[in-house]
Amino acid sequence: MNKTIVTVFFILSFFFGVSLIIYQTVTEFYNKRCIEDKYGVNYNDQRIRLGLSTIPSNWSIKWYDSSVEWKDPVFRLGHRWKNISFKGCRILNELDLFVLEYDKHIKQYNKIIKIEAEYDENEKLKTVIYSLQVDDYSREISKAKADSLLSTIIMDL
Known about the structure:
Blueprint lengths: L1 H38 L4 H7 L9 E4 L3 E5 L6 E10 L2 E14 L4 E12 L5 E10 L2 E5 L1 H14 L1
Keywords: Membrane, Transmembrane, Transmembrane helix
């Protein structure tokens, strides 16, 4: 009797473990394909229509539990990365980071612009928030101010 219980327990544990691995693999693959295909570089035309920053095709990609980060592989001033948060296959927000000043001695961004685009439950753009961070101080700014600051750095590149 004890051998039967141990055998049944072992078999059930084995199948549960295999099922869990398959579920995690399929879910991860689905989410990556869904997010990358739906909101990656393929979404750039829509980003342009919405007035948002695009993802260059040469950027590297890094996956986290509930977000994806596209990053410029070459360090330079300007657009450094875009982080997209999601739930399942639904986009929640996009966060872009633009570096305006970098201190080489302390290896720190001194002046950055963050642009956060938030989406509603229907995946429609709800709000865009622009903020300027100088050292440890951050404040919201207008789109016009962000565009003005960004045009100065782009001209310097």
